Amino acid sequence: MEAKQEEPRHLSVDHESLKEPRNRKGGWITFPFLAVAILGLGVATGGATANMVVYLIKEYNVPSVDAAQISNIVSGSISVAPVAGAIVADAFFGCFPIVAVAMVMAVLSLVMFTLTASLPGLRPAACQLGAGPCEQASTGQMAALYAAVFLLCLSAAGARFNQATMGANQFEAAADRDVFFNWYFIFFYASSVLGATVIVYLQDTVSWTLGFGVSCAASVVGLAALLLGARYYRQPPAQGSPFTGLARVVVAAARKRKVSVVASEELKFYYGQRRGDEDVKSGGDDVVTPSDSFSFLNRAAVITDGDVDDTSGSVLRPWRVCTVQQVEDFKTVLRIMPLWSAAIVLSVAIGVQINFTILQALAMDRAVGRFTVPAGSMFVGSLMAVVIFLGLLDRVLLPLWRRVTGHTPTPLQCVGLGHALTVLSMATSAIIERHRTATVRAHGEEGNPAWVSPLSAMWLLLPFAVAGAGEALHFPAQVTLYYQEFPPLLKNTATGMMAMIVALGFYLSTALINVIQRATTWLPDNMNASKLENLYWLLTVLVAVNFGYFLACAKLYTYQNIGK
């Protein structure tokens, strides 16, 4: 499984490389524009979503568990949308046009959020304690809110991970791309920290209108920076839909299921329309040959009568024969899918942890001196841990690892360590919740949903910090793995793979909570009467079992490109 790794790279920009020839596109000269665009979009998105649970509860009178569920669905939608954006960029337009339009959508979304906060007619009347049932939001009011969310999803679809691919496309050297990916995640998480602290603080202590307004201004600055750098960007053309070729492999292999590929020396494989007839039908020295893994797919590249024009070598029946390269590309995707699937449970656990930790914080003492920490800002502990741990990895931990072991850790080793830390994080959340409920019982306040435990909510930063350290290990490592291992035509889709993982995690976490609500009494609307500790222990077990599954998949995986 291990492959020879390159020397570690530091998060430092080679200023000499900024001196690009004037007629040359790409390179580090594009970095400042992309950095501001990433920061602007991140602050805008964070400002709109970090405090969503509190916004729904306080301004739309939504019950707490329902608010957490809605927030999960919104987060899942924002996370899955980039997959569609990556496919469109790969197939039709390239990255830059898609990212530019997406950032316009971000501006429009934040305008809508600002309007929902500033116009009383777009929200139900404030809920008064002891004055009877709270007024529910009307269909029109919820439609205005969901319109803002929809525009935010469109923004995420086009920009969230296409920004990463667009940045990587500016560099030819793998070393420069690795440095950019590290910087991308630092800016991505740093902007999320700003959104979850500064913007949430403004929303909670000044006004929701000001908070959303500042987010809107950040999106405008990001859009302006992106457009100002347009003349410097390298913009590779779209290559057409890569999924057509993958689909052809499945169809061709199925249609030739009776063709035997055991005696492959007696068969001719199609390598594409090349210089001469022998190259077309048997491949040259510089082309890939059919591999033995998933050998049943090799029949898709076997030439049978009528598949290929004998004179020109062009395909006559494209859904009956594929090139060997297309078959091997499809195999690459199949090989990596088990590793990809192992990250889904991680995302489920983290999605549950994020939203229920906010609900815990609302029922705990959030005072730090004279300052009260907004509940929606608790997640910043995870984001800050990611940023800090990424810096420690680059400057301290990776050099130390190299001195001790003699090589740089592989992406799979980093992902595995991230899995282990996530198990520890879930167990830590369960232990803290046990202490919180103990204070509730000690004061006899199980029946009082408004009672606030004297236990400091700062304890909730501990599991978030551990989860953030794990995310700093497994998230960038997975993006690197997919980007470098996937076929060239699937580079945008490769970075979108993480978006699909995060989205599935949020959606499945919503489904998990629904099942638990129906099957148990763990999660009433009153947090002081809940048995949230049981949920955290369940997540601990699920993540631990999933860690074993990941280790089995990693043991069987062989790197295709990393280290070559």
Question: What do you see in this structure?
Answer:
- 64% of the residues lie in helices and 2% in strands.
- It is mainly alpha-helical.
- The strands form 2 sheets. It has a two-stranded parallel sheet. A two-stranded antiparallel ribbon has the order 2-3.
- A hairpin with a 2-residue loop joins strand 2 and strand 3.
- The longest helix has 39 residues, at 324-362.
- The two termini are 13 Å apart.
- The model is unreliable at 1-21 and 275-285 (pLDDT under 50).
- Keywords: Membrane, Transmembrane, Transmembrane helix.
- Its main location: membrane.
Portion in strands: under 5%
Give the topology string: H per helix, E per strand: HHHHHHHHHHHEEEHHEHHH
**Main sheet attributes: strand count, strand direction, barrel closure:** 2 strands, parallel
| Strand adjacency order, main sheet | 1-4
Morphology call = globular
Classify the helix fraction into a percent range.
55-70%
| Rg calculated over all Cα atoms | 26 Å
Mean pLDDT: 83
Number of strands: 4
Provide the structure class: mainly alpha
- Poorly predicted tracts of residues: 1-21, 275-285
The end-to-end span amounts to 13 Å
How many separate helices? 16
Pfam families: PTR2
InterPro entries: MFS_trans_sf, POT_fam
Protein name: Nitrate excretion transporter 1
Membrane topology: Multi-pass membrane protein
